[in-house]
Amino acid sequence: MGSTADKASGKANEIAGKARQGVGEATDDTSMKAKGTAQEAKGDAQQVKGEAKDKVEKVVDKA
Questions:
Q1: pLDDT single digits (tens) 38-60
Q2: What is the C-alpha to C-alpha distance for residues 33 and 7, in angstroms, rounded to an integer?
Q3: Looking at CB atoms within 10 Å, which of 37, 44, 51, 59 has the fewest?
């Protein structure tokens, strides 16, 4: 998966996780809130991975 795909998937997971947390909060569903938090964290990690790939590609391109 390329850096752009990682960042896009990460953003999508982050948004979906926040939505899940909101539904969990509104319905007082602690399991839903926890799953949303985990999904948001996964999205954050995917975005970091994409940014790291970008940095590596820039270094390789300069070489």
A1: 999 999 999 999 999 999 988 98
A2: 23
A3: 59
